Amino acid sequence: MNRRTPRLIGVAALCAALSAAGQLPLSGASGASGVAGPDRLTGPASRSAVVGLGQGDRVRLTPLGQDGRQVIEPLRSQDGTTPGLLVSTDDHGTTLRATDGSGEPTLVDGTAPTTTRATAADLVELNLDAIARDGRTASADVTVYDVVTGATQAVRRIPGDPDAACSTKSFEESSCVLVPPGTYSVMAFVNTMPAARPGTARERTVQNVSLVGDPEVAVEASRDFTFDARRARPVEIRTPDHRTKVNADGAMQVGYSRTAANGRKIVRQYRPSAMLDQRFFMEAAAPVRNGALETLTRLRLEAPDIELTVAGRALHPEYYDQVWFSDVITDFPMYDGHDRLRVVDVGHATPADLAGKNLRGAIAVAERTDDLSVAEQSNAAAVAGAALVVVHNDGPGDNDDPNGTGTKLQVPTLRLDRAEGEALKAARGRVEVRGETASPYLYDLVLKEQGSIPKDLSYVFRDRDLAAQVREIHGQPTVDSTFSEAAYQYQPEDTFSVSTMYPFRGGARNRVEYRVPDPDTRWTYATVTPQSTYNALFPHPPVLRMTLSDPDLVAYESAGRTTKPVGTAPVTAAPSTFRPMERSGNQTRVAIDGFVDADGNHGTSYSTNSGMSTLLQIRADGELVGETDNLPSGVAVLPAGDSRVEVSFVADNPQPWAELSTHTESVWTFASTTVPAGEVVTQRSPTTTSPGASRGVTTRTATARPVPPGP
Q1: Residue of 508, 501, 461 lying closest to 480 (CA atoms)
Q2: Strand pairing partners for 158?
Q3: Which pLDDT belongs to residue 69?
Q4: How far apart are CA 389 and CA 501, in angstroms?
Q5: Are 163 and 127 contacting, i.e. CB atoms less than 8 angstroms apart?
Q6: Taking Cα atoms as reference points, which of 75, 18, 28, 19 lies closest to residue 52?
């Protein structure tokens, strides 16, 4: 390296430099051989990578630690929606596929599964079809798996191409598969579509999803399999200590793992994109005799975000998806409080329909129409004085189609099916309305069944039987801080976890979170401030958000109460916990996280057009050997032999959302020496030059709101 122009070597530059020297590239770099070389540094070369799934669908994969675990984040498409995902894992690796996409699954880890090899005389034909919960022909994703040897597994997306030949391929869009005679698990995720959509449509919005089939069945001859979702039973939860509901996007995951008698295993997980019912269903199954079976359902319950009661009858209102009308949750109006309001029928909410109507403080009930968007109907009623707008469907079933996007709503706007909309319009007297925008509690429940699937999937959870965690979200002293959050759960076999980034409504506050005690379910968390955007309909100034991720995985083995703070001041810099400082030969990798709170949560900061600026410098015996004002990570070449290394990081954060830690200076020093060829050594924990790890840091701490009383 030219010492007169010190810099940090990026991944591509370092690969080129090492290749020119006849050495192997960094682990994780493009073209890496995966064989340890004399200057190979371990760990991911970058924090995340974007992977395309076809048809414009993308996910971001972010490493979590150095043991291969990753977080999967579905990314928004141009219309603001995220893809639903089918995650498939076996002893070959992991693949992803969008639930509404086409084409083969995308391999994100390991190698592609091999096709079953057998002679034609040994094969039998399985013909597959599916029936939705409403009795229509349905689409489904089917997995056929040999539960004795694990040697045969085939995935079919049905209904398939009618011209496709029946084959032994591991994946095909076909309604047929050829397998050797044997004992198989034949399971399917069956989609029930909204009534107005074709039953076999492959679209992002579904009515509900059912796990249907037989986890163990003998196959001796060709036969038909019909996956009938009408046989499935709902997964239902009661929480006697709190009023709860599975709000929007709260039905997070349904899946199963099937272990063959010889120990080989497959895992199938379904993460929906948009589901109108927010309900999962599963078909009962007898205990398996070969290997093991485990099902997993994840549901997220909070205080009901909206409730309507007419003469003692509870209706089933839902908000229209905020993604169509806003970019952040604070721009999406929601009802907060408890009241009794008048109901006014406003027809289609045209100017003629609204003329002469007294809507002040009332619920305006409109019928959906193709002639107006939901935003046009709602905002017209709002201008006329409505406090709340309900749009009911003009046909059978549910309909969440906004009929147009890009317009902000002025008042809370709900949807109902036609029958309940007519019941609301017929209400005499006032209607009870209750809404809660910031639930003081959350039930994030992972439910497992092992060996079999019972007929009754109803669960009752008392708070005293659950692990309670008080989440303390800290913000800025006088700025109205906003937040988003995600929680990731891992099972013992998982290397990937999919979750949703949810708005954390209500600003800096405390919330009690309840989870099922389970030593095999491990959790980690991420919090973002300011709130993350879920669409890009409206202009926004550039901003670098602070993402604080928990570096640890935590299992809740018993009931009890713990505290989990995030965002406590001061927010300073620290070496990355995910990519520790390592040396191989005379090359040292350095990675600094510029956002590290007093609770040990980590996040990256770097220079952007938001005004945020950072500078990372590395010195050896006082001489500058590397620096960058971009992502604060890279590889620097140190002098041969012993040297005293100093790593300094300066960050300025003038962004409007930040009042604390707007300027930080951090310095770490440690002794380092040349590492023998073929070895990688983690540098011993560096020491800081001053207490608190930073200079010039404001240390005021925003106070979170009081914790709600426990049961």
Answers
A1: 508
A2: 140
A3: 84
A4: 27
A5: no
A6: 75
Tokens read off for 627: 């620096």
The answer to whether 440 touches 512, Cβ cutoff 8 Å, is yes
**Distances from the Cα of 117 to the Cαs of 123, 152, 156, 701, in angstroms?**
10, 9, 17, 64
Q: Which residues of the chain have pLDDT under 70?
A: 1-47, 65-66, 112-121, 684-711
Angstrom distance (rounded) from CA 689 to CA 645: 12
User: Residue 617 burial (CB < 10 Å; 0-12/13-18/19+)?
Assistant: buried
Give residue limits of the domains in the chain: 1-79+462-532+550-711, 114-298, 308-435
Rounded to whole angstroms, the Cα distance separating 352 from 359 reads 14
Residue 557 dihedral angles phi and psi, to the nearest 5° = -90, -15
Q: Residue 590 has what pLDDT?
A: 94
pTM of this structure: 0.90
Question: Which residue, chain included where needed, has tokens 């938001």?
Answer: 610
Look-up of token digits 């974007």: 50
Torsion sign, CA atoms 392, 398, 399, 400: positive
DSSP 255: E
The predicted pLDDT at position 697 comes to 42
Cα–Cα distance between 171 and 156 in angstroms, integer? 6
Three-state secondary structure call for residue 517? coil
**Distance set, CA 474 to CA 106, 527, 553, 698 (Å):** 39, 11, 21, 15
Contact 213, 231 (CB under 8 A): no
Return the half-sphere exposure (C-beta side, CA atoms, 13 A cut-off) of residue 76. 14
pLDDT at 687: 57
Q: Which residues pair with 54 in a beta bridge?
A: 57
Q: State phi, psi for 308 to the nearest 5 degrees.
A: -130, 130
CA distance 267 to 493: 9
Closest CA to 83 of 274, 211, 252: 274
Nearest to 90 by CA among 66, 67, 110: 110
d(CA 164, CA 173) in angstroms, rounded, equals: 8
H or E element that contains 73? strand 70-74
Q: What is the DSSP letter of 285?
A: B
Cβ-count burial of 347 within 10 angstroms (0-12 exposed, 13-18 middle, 19+ buried)? Answer: middle
Q: Does domain 308-435 have CATH number 3.50.30.30?
A: yes
Residues 6+ apart with CB under 8 A from 257: 265, 266, 267, 268, 292, 293, 294, 296, 491, 493
Q: What is the pLDDT of residue 9?
A: 45
Q: Per residue in 545-556, pLDDT tens?
A: 999 999 889 999
Residues in Cβ contact with 286 at an 8 Å cutoff, skipping those fewer than 6 apart: 216, 452
For the chain, counts of helices (H) and of strands (E)? 4, 53
* pLDDT reported for residue 16: 33
